[in-house]
Amino acid sequence: MKNEMIIHNKNNATHTIVKFYTAIAVFGWTVFVVAVLSWNIYYHKIGTLEIARNHAQESFDKDLVHRRWAAKHGGVYVPITKDTPPNPYLSHIEERDITTPSGRQLTLMNPAYMTRQVLELGAEQYGLRGHITSLNPLRPENAPDSWERETLKGFEKNPVEVTSLEKIDGQTYMRLMKPMATEQSCLKCHASQGYKVGDIRGGISVSVPMKPILALANTQLKKIVLGYGLTWTLGLIGIGIGFLRIRNHITTYNQSQKTLREINQQLNSEITERKQAEKGLETAMHKADAANIAKSQFLANMSHEIRTPMNGIIGFSDLLADEDLTDEQKESVTLIRESGHNLLRLINDILDFSKIEAGQLDTEIIDCSLGTLLNSIGSLMRPKAIEKGLEFEIVESNDLPAQIHSDPTRLNQCLINLIGNATKFTKEGHVYVNVSLEEREDKPFIRFDVEDTGIGIPKDKQAKVFESFTQADGDTTRKYGGTGLGLTITKQLTELLGGELTLTSEIDKGSVFSLAIPANVDVTKQPFLDMHNIAGHTNPNQTKAGQTKFSGNILVAEDAPTNQVLIRSLLERLGLQVTIAEDGNQARQKVLTGHFDLIFMDIQMPHMNGYEATKEIRKKGITTPIVTLTANAMKGDDKKCIEAGCDDYLAKPIDRRELLKTISKYLPSGSEDFSERIDSVKAQVDELNQLCFDTKSPGEDSREIINWPELVSRGMEEDILKEVVPVFLADRKERISKLTEAVEAGDAKEVKLCAHTIKGGAGNVGAKKLSEAASKLEQLASQGDLSDAGKLLDQIKTEFKKFELFVSQPDWIEIAKGN
């Protein structure tokens, strides 16, 4: 009841406000109409006066024209009558009166006389009054009245037209008077008065009666007032209608609000119940997410831990297989090897599945050889098919491109999964891989149809086989084994590559799994695939690799012991004599006292940096080639090195192929096909990268500690890495200790130098994250900003500890290669 009273009072207040604003609208509308009407009346009055003045002006102009015409002819002779008697004021003119040969008596009518006659006629017929007058008239009757006298006196000071409303005989007239100047024709009559040409001798006044003009104007004004009155009335009607509509709207709105409040009251209880349910659901979802994350982490950690001993099991079984064993022992070792490989495949499936679930599986889209991929798959999968007595064939269409742009590792993994399944589930017959080119939405796709004559999959189970941990039925799992993850992973990898995986199958006749991925190349500009010349697709300059040898003395200016060992090993393997200088000052002294064929110069070194040392060497006139060898690889660093006097520039970590190319510019070698050998090394490295299976583990991937593919791409050899890593560990401990002291002391210059050295050494051994953390700290220190130095120092220590623990494993190189 109380709420209803409040709502009722609120409604009354609303209606009162509407009435108030309606009254304001009526008042405002009335004021507006009155204001506009007043404005129109004012300008209507001005227009009426302007009409009267124009009539007076027209009459004046006509009188003036008549007068000038008469003056031009010296006057006009008219018969002497009662109305036109001789003008006594022209008696001084000899021929004022004349007699025509026929005996008619004529008298001269001068311009003033004629104008007066015209004006009197106009007044008689039209009510227009005209008067030609002067303060010194020839004819006394032409004397001015009071208004004309005042006006004529004004002409003596300012001879301009004068108009005004005046009363004549009790009636209102529009009076106009203009000055009359003496012209040459006027002197005939007025020269005796002393006037000269140009003198103001009087004026002509015209008086227009206002009565007929005002009558017409009043008629029009009534119409205007009536129109505005009608407009005002219509406005009031509109305001009234608006008021009624607003009031009705408010009434409807209030009724709607009342209904809405009732509905809201009903919903509030439902919303409260729903919120409680949502809260319970959210809690359950958080628990489920936490459980899912825990499961993924558990899978990742357990799989990673299992892989390490598995590498040992498989490795030693391979060694045992090479020994002289009895048939029974060989059979046992073979069983161990196969079981180990099967378990490793299961682990890899679990790793990939956990990565996919966590959204951490990445792809690396690069240019790759389709022929190399198919050749690799054929070499790997054909023996297994033949072992089961199956016919295996890869059939390529004629229009396939030699190169595609995709992730060869993931594509290889997908095809091996599909072919492996086809082989496993086929007892007799064949396994074919048909490769063709097709268009989808005007884009080229490569299609792989893996066809088998196996057990087939029922139609109602075909969608189910792509689900996690699922096979067609339980009997299949018991008979053939497997986790049920292979097709799930393959389908998701295919979608990551932008492709599609589909299935057609028939029980006891076989299955066809069709995998289609975008080629991502313009196939019209690609050579056709030639399986007999795959090397030509991969690298046209590829030849058999050979070790190039050089001769010469090399000076290496490098302060980091790790880098010293690495560079010395690389250069000595090339047949070069190496001398080490630990800073720029030592380098300068050794160059001045010894002979060197090539100098490698680090930039950031203690006592004297590489720029300063190079400038000092060049000042002495020494022209030995100097190659900058530094971890500074920012844009513009190469230009700074050349400006300092260096001949070339190499960035750390050291890329062995680039090192060979650089040395070949300045030193002679014993091989004429050196560039071909370098290209051969690059081609082999690229091919190795393409054929490697992805066995990275989730969670903390060992590639995050040592990036083995990057080391391989730079031509790093295992024995050199084994020599460099212990030196790196010993040297980095000392460097990190110095870096800690510099951070605590706030010495930005020393922090930059230490971080730079750590960055370069870490890059040389493939410790990517450690190198990146040191690089960030170096950049901040170079700007004098140590605000985040403590945080980055902790990160450097953590990454170094991870690296140290990782390389402490006896088979750490094999683990790194496995990534």
Describe this protein's structure:
With 819 residues, this protein is an alpha/beta fold. Helices cover 57% and strands 15% of the residues. Helix 1 (2-72) packs across helix 5 and helix 6 (327-358) packs across helix 10. The longest helix has 111 residues, at 211-321. It starts with a helix and ends with a helix.
What is the element layout, followed by pairings?
Elements: H1 2-72, E1 76-79, E2 97-99, E3 105-109, H2 111-126, E4 129-133, H3 146-157, E5 162-168, E6 171-181, H4 187-190, E7 200-209, H5 211-321, H6 327-358, E8 366-369, H7 370-387, E9 391-396, E10 403-406, H8 408-424, E11 430-440, E12 443-452, H9 474-480, H10 486-496, E13 500-506, E14 510-518, H11 534-538, E15 553-557, H12 561-573, E16 577-581, H13 584-593, E17 598-601, H14 610-619, E18 626-630, H15 637-644, E19 648-651, H16 656-666, H17 674-691, H18 708-713, H19 718-745, H20 748-764, H21 768-782, H22 789-807, H23 812-818
Parallel strand pairs: 9-11, 15-16, 15-17, 17-18, 18-19
Antiparallel strand pairs: 1-3, 2-3, 4-7, 5-6, 6-7, 8-10, 11-12, 12-14, 13-14
Helix pairs in contact: 1-2, 1-5, 5-6, 6-10, 7-8, 8-10, 12-19, 13-14, 16-17, 19-20, 19-22, 20-21, 21-22
